[in-house]
């Protein structure tokens, strides 16, 4: 009598020593081992994944075959060769279905023991979010969720383990019950693929411009890993300023000028911008300033080193507030704020007093030496909450007499605080303008600082001596750090050329007459250095007004460089609060050669804050709970978050 075919072959097909499940789609791993016709792997698969078990009819037919047809769900013919196994299989009771199944299980376990040495391919059970549900989550839908999850992790600075966390599984059990969880390693591969895609977009943007400006800074993580960041700034063909974070690269060597220059050059080469970088903005640290001087950059101006304007301004402020009268007040105010920061009772009492006085609930702000404008913010918040703070310190049920006496701020000190706030506020406003999220070009540095000194730091007869000293210090430090003192031998700086090319400041009213002529001559020399082959004459179609369209006339460029420059000088200046990039976009064809130079200099930012913001992002990624992140993963996650606009 012919052998009975196993019930599993109703749901699978066999090819040699391999079996394929007919119920699984082509995207799934539906291949199983069936050496010699074994069916154990298929039985486990059908029971676990498809919920299929042998029917009672099938078991009954097997039992009727008796000893001539021993039933075994795992293997049709057992080749163990043991006499004990043969006795067990021939003594099956035909009327006892339970003994039949138990005997099959015994044979299955023996088969596994006999073939432990053989490698068998088993399919791992994928973790699903929900229970058995009729709602289908096919391969395309699953991959779409995986990609969206990768973008979510990148944009929200989440850990990689989020994709397999219990909370996320519970969430997906409601949204998509049959969604298969993506493992951490698989998610990491998708993030790297996402990074490659963003890199291609950035490279395409960088290849379409003639000049790239970079900012750089250094940082050490909580794990004591040292990093160097680089951010690229460009103006595209539509005169739209753009910024891209290129790298947050680990630096294992000492931060010497030579090592820093080598690392920067390596990043330039990786991004294929080595011949396009015109300027690198840094802070005032000597090592990075000297490193930039070692770079082979392509700007034509001899005095190309540009430092962060906001950092230089904060150094000037720090010198001014070191006066004893100011340092004592700052120390006293810091102690008051610290008391409310460390006492829950005092903090809650402050909120109650604010509510009674009709003020907003506001916590006091503590100053920090490394945080710009923090002294101004602390004093301003404390002065606004003078009444509730004083009431809390005078309440003996909240503040003891000893602490109140120690933290008391006298009336004369309050007057000095108010005066110091009025001195620091214009500096605070200028710093914010320099560090704006929107592109703040270097062209605005000298005009704004000149306006600051002329309008807010002029001496008055009613000024007290400490106010006069503060103003004198600020004026001296700003003029010294930004090289305001100029003479006939002074060279033209990058900021001065950028100011001339900015239509808001092109009249150079903040410069002495001899310096205005010198700046214009320097720009004319730069224009003459441009080789005709280096200037892209294929401009965008000219923008026509309605009248120009009707008359068939357009604004044409003047090929004579001197004429272009003279016409540009004769143009009325743009209002200080207008957009200079829109101005140039409308006149690019009129000043074709001058526009190329303007695009190069107006791309230079006033500060290196973009690179410092990059490290703020890295600090949110490398936390105390994630301090063991690999540096390449830190670079990847920081890169994706900083360039998140390109993920959409």
Automatic annotation (TrEMBL):
It is found in: Nucleus. Residues 54-134 are annotated as: Disordered. Its main location: nucleus. The keyword Coiled coil does not apply. Residues 64-81, 88-111 have a biased composition (Polar residues). SUPFAM superfamilies: Ribonuclease H-like. One of its GO terms (molecular function) is protein dimerization activity. InterPro entries: HATC_C_dom, RNaseH-like_sf, Znf_BED, ZnF_BED_domain_contain. Residues 3-57 form the BED-type domain. It holds the Pfam family Dimer_Tnp_hAT. This is BED-type domain-containing protein. One of its GO terms (cellular component) is nucleus. It comes from the Eukaryota. It comes from Macrosiphum euphorbiae. Keywords: DNA-binding, Metal-binding, Nucleus, Transcription, Transcription regulation, Zinc, Zinc-finger.
């Amino acid at each position: 009598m012919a052998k009975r075919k196993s019930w599993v072959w109703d749901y699978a097909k066999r090819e040699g020593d391999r079996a394929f499940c007919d119920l699984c789609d082509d995207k799934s791993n539906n291949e199983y081992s069936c050496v010699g016709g074994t069916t154990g792997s298929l039985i486990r698969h059908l029971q676990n994944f498809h919920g299929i078990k042998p029917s009672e009819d099938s078991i009954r037919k097997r039992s009727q075959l008796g000893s001539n047809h021993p039933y075994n769900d795992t293997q049709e013919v057992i080749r163990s060769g043991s006499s004990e196994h043969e006795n067990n299989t021939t003594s099956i009771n035909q009327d006892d279905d339970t003994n039949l199944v138990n005997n099959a299980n015994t044979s299955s376990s023996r088969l596994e023991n006999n073939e432990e040495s053989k490698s068998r391919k088993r399919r791992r059970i994928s973790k699903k979010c929900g229970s058995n549900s009729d709602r289908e989550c096919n391969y395309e839908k699953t991959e779409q969720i995986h990609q969206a999850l990768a973008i979510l992790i990148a944009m929200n600075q989440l850990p990689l383990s989020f994709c397999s966390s219990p909370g996320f599984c519970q969430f997906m059990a409601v949204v998509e019950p049959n969604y298969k969880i993506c493992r951490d390693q698989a998610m990491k591969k998708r993030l790297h693929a996402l990074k490659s895609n963003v890199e291609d977009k950035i490279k395409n943007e960088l290849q379409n411009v003639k000049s790239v400006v970079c900012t750089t800074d250094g940082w050490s993580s909580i794990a004591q890993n040292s990093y160097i960041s680089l951010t690229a700034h460009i103006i595209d063909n539509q005169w739209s300023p753009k910024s891209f974070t290129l790298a947050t690269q680990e630096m294992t060597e000492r931060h010497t000028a030579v090592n820093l220059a080598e690392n920067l050059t390596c990043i330039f080469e990786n991004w294929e911008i080595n011949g396009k970088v015109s300027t690198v903005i840094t802070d005032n640290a000597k090592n990075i300033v000297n490193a930039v001087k070692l770079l082979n950059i392509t700007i034509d101006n001899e005095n190309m080193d540009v430092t962060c304007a906001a950092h230089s301004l904060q150094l000037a402020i720090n010198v001014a507030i070191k006066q004893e009268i100011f340092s004592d007040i700052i120390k006293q105010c810091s102690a008051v704020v610290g008391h409310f920061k460390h006492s829950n009772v005092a903090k809650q009492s402050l909120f109650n007093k604010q509510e009674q006085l009709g003020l907003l609930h506001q916590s006091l702000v503590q100053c920090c030496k490394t945080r710009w404008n923090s002294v101004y913010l602390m004093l301003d918040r404390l002065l606004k909450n003078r009444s509730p703070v004083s009431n809390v310190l005078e309440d003996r049920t909240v503040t003891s007499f000893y602490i109140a006496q120690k933290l008391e701020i006298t009336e004369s000190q309050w007057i000095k605080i108010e005066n110091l706030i009025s001195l620091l506020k214009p500096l605070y406003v200028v710093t914010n303008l320099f560090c704006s999220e929107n592109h703040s070009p270097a062209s605005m540095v000298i005009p704004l600082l000149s306006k600051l000194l002329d309008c807010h730091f002029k001496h008055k007869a009613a000024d007290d001596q400490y106010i006069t000293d503060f103003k004198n210090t600020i004026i001296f430090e700003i003029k010294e750090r930004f090289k305001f003192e100029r003479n006939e031998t002074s060279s033209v700086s990058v900021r001065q050329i950028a100011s001339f090319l900015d239509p808001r400041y092109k009249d150079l009213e903040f410069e002495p007459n001899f310096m205005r002529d010198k700046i214009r001559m320097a720009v004319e020399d730069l224009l003459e250095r441009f080789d005709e082959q280096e200037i892209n004459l294929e401009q965008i179609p000219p923008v026509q007004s309605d009248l120009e369209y009707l008359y068939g006339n357009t604004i044409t460029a003047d090929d004579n460089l001197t004429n272009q420059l003279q016409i540009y000088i004769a143009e009325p200046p743009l209002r200080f609060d207008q957009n200079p990039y829109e101005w140039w976009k409308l006149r690019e064809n009129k000043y074709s050669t001058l526009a190329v130079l303007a695009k190069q200099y107006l791309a230079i930012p006033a500060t290196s804050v973009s690179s410092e913001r990059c490290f703020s992002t890295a600090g949110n990624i490398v936390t105390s709970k994630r301090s063991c992140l690999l540096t390449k993963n830190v670079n990847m996650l920081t890169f994706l978050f900083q360039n998140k606009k390109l993920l959409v």
